[in-house]
Amino acid sequence: MTLLLVDDQINVINGLMNGINYRKLEIDTVLPSTSVQEAKTLICENQIDILMTDIEMPGENGLQLLHWVSENYPDIVCILLTSHADFSYAQESIKLGCFDYVVQPAPYQEIEDALLRAIAKVHTEAEKNQYYKDGLFYTNHKQELTDRTILNLFSQNPANRQQALQLLNEIHYPLSLQSCIRLISIDIYPLTDNTADSSLVDLVMRQKITDSLRLCGFCKPIYNLITLNTSKRFVIVLFANGDALSNLSVSSYHAFYQQLSKQISPEMSIYIGNFISFSEMRSEIHRIDTFVANNVNKKPSLYFTEQEKNFATSMDVADNIAHWNRLLNSEQYEKLLESILSYLDFIASLNVTNLKTLCDLHQQLTQLFFIYAYQHEIDVTSLFTEEYSYNEYMDAFKDTSALRKAVSFIIPAIHVSSGSDSEKGAVSLAKKYITNNVSLNLSVKDVADYVHLSPEYFTKLFKKEVGQNIKSYILQVKVEIAKDLLGNPNIPISMVALDLGYSNFSHFTQVFKKLEGITPTDYRKNILGDNSFPSDSES
Are residues 148 and 287 in the same domain? Predict the structure, then answer.
């Protein structure tokens, strides 16, 4: 492994040469360079694996070197060093394919960590290149073919499983019927909760998982296969021919969890399966999936699924349902919401709720809400919006956070749909309050407090009655009053801004132009012509 260091300051070069334990990193050769031109010569004459370069240098800088490397030697893994945490530098370096970015001064340990990640990248790319040289995968379909092959290991059809095993052997994965196997399921909550296309994120995650496994000792003779299942959970197939996998310490799995949490997100859970044989893979992944589904509280942690959890087979919520029904029928919506959320927090703290018991609770709550809607002639479908759909509500039984979101949405929605004349009067009162206090910087809470309603409920009620949210309405009222005041040539525009509560003249100009498509000065000129009147700078 060869590393090229580039920095115009010789003391920095010396520090990097002497302060890092390259032998421990298995870096055989370190080449120093004090200029971009010298670095290019060294790259042309040597097989460079990793380039670590400063950005700010006289003459050509590090970004220009990176551009040259990306065009001529794209296999070199590049790390940028800089003394300025400038986002534009980071953004440009990413465009040029930079692997990592370290802000100086940085501890040598941080630089060693960056080099470890780069080394893992070099090894991974070397393995990929070997696959390509063997002609076993086409570049455009490699990931798709790999995923299909791995998923076929869990197929119900024995012929599919045998074919997958054969294909893996052909690409140098020595999986066999006698291999010791362990399955790992990774649930990254921001990924599984995201409904958008995440193909790019998928590739990044796979690389981080691969790097983390390598850094934590999951190396040959232990092999790994990584795929993404239909539930957006990553599945890792660890296997070895011999005792290497079964002899791996529990601390290695904890280290992997910590490393991956740091690399991707702390909001994740990793589920470790039992040691199994090839013939047990299908039943084992089903067992792990059941364990994952029953973790309805989604508490981030490392779980060894061999330790079966004791869940409550049912929950007696009859008294709670009766209490919630009384609160709903007496229109005590805020108390109802508070009571249900408190109960969800309570059962989450006990950590004995599984998918079945949470599903039962969701069904009973749905029955409570929908019967009330029917009795009060509320169209259930009208309760839902593009932001929160009926289907999302009906799927909210899968975890406690989803059920909290569902309850927090549907109770205010029912409240709004059951709105009385007095509540409509509250909207009218709020509109008058806003008009009479345009000089104040009113918040949603200020307006809601004035009409003695909660901000959450009043926001929905106002939107339903007026057709726009409170903040937008306040801005609209201010601009309409501004237009009237601008018709008077004796009032300076800066005074108009102050009268409407804008201490920053530029901010007033931006708000006015956003709503009217024209600046206050130009608006005044349009309605008054070029007559002389007090003017203000809008710069």
Answer: yes
Shared domain for 391 and 510, answered yes or no, is no
pLDDT tens digits, the chain, 539 residues: what are they? 899 999 999 988 999 899 898 989 889 999 999 999 999 999 999 999 999 988 888 888 888 898 898 888 888 999 888 776 555 655 666 666 788 878 878 888 988 998 999 999 888 888 777 665 655 444 455 677 788 889 899 988 889 999 999 989 988 899 999 999 999 999 998 877 665 455 557 788 889 999 999 999 999 999 999 998 888 899 999 999 999 999 999 999 999 999 999 999 899 999 999 999 999 999 999 999 999 999 898 889 999 998 766 665 667 788 899 999 999 988 888 899 999 999 999 988 887 788 889 999 999 999 999 999 998 888 898 888 888 899 999 999 999 999 999 999 999 888 877 765 566 678 888 998 999 898 999 999 999 888 878 888 888 888 888 889 999 999 999 999 999 899 888 889 999 999 899 988 889 999 999 999 999 999 998 888 765 445 555 54
For residue 203, how many other CB atoms are within 10 A of its CB?
11
Domain range spanning residue 199?
A: 141-304
* Whether residue 274 sits in one domain with residue 156: yes
If asked whether residues 175 and 199 sit together in one domain, one would say yes
What pTM does this model have? 0.54
CATH number of the domain that 176 lies in?
3.30.70
In a domain, 534, yes or no: no
Same domain membership, residue 459 and residue 427: yes
Q: How far is Cα 235 from Cα 155, in angstroms, rounded to an integer?
A: 14
The tokens for 504 are 């920053």
Q: Is residue 537 part of a domain?
A: no
DSSP letter for each residue of 331-382: T-HHHHHHHHHHHHHHHHHHT---HHHHHHHHHHHHHHHHHHHHHTT--GGG
Count of structural domains within the chain: 4
* Measured torsion, CA atoms of residues 160, 166, 169, 174, in degrees rounded to the nearest 10: 70
